[in-house]
Amino acid sequence: MTDNAATAIDNPRSTVVRRRKGVNWEKWGWVYMRASGVLLVVLIFGHLFVNLFAGEGVTQLDFGFVAGKWASSFWQWYDFLLLWFALVHGSNGIRTIINDYSTPPTGTGIRWLLTPHGIMKTALVVSTVVLLTLGTLVIFTFDPCPAGSPADLLPSFCSVAR
Ligand code: HEM
Description:
It is found in: Membrane. GO terms for molecular function: metal ion binding. By secondary structure, the chain is mostly helical. The chain is built from six helices and no strands. α1 (25-53) crosses α3 (73-101). The longest helix is centred in the first third of the chain and has 29 residues, at 25-53. The protein is elongated and about 60 Å long. Bound molecules: protoporphyrin IX containing FE. Protoporphyrin IX containing FE (HEM) binds at residues 33-34, 37, 40-41, 44, 86, 89-90, 93-94, 96-97.
């Protein structure tokens, strides 16, 4: 034990025991973290390059820039992949951390749910599903010039388009 034991974090020791039969989800989660990590390097640096470096650089970022990008199905699918790979990667990483540091309860159902472990896992699943749903809807339904909107609420390029 060290002198600063009060601030030391325990060694991670997953207390989640794997079933011996069936699909080894823990292994596939491990594989997913590596495969998505490689893809994320490409997606994240491509995103940063196009938004912050190419063209006029960081000063080009505004509502019109986003509208322009999402007018192209290429950038819609690019951002969709970035959203899903990063969010599922981040959530699966947080799931690993919860398993490493919080003991799963022995009970099931409501007895499982009303424990720190159950609350954290439930909050993780709910927030992931909400963010994936909202993010996907925003990417594919975004309309910078919605029909019937008052002209003074619309960006100037909408009048040019009509
Ligand atoms: C350049 C992009 C990225 C690469 C190459 C990458 C790679 C990795 C790898 C290989 C692991 C597994 C580490 C292990 O099992 O010990 C990991 C864990 C993790 N990643 Fe990423 N990642 C990237 C981006 C992200 C992003 C954008 C997020 C958040 C949305 C994120 C959140 C996490 C979390 C929470 C963990 C779990 C950490 C832990 O177990 O201690 N990563 N990452």
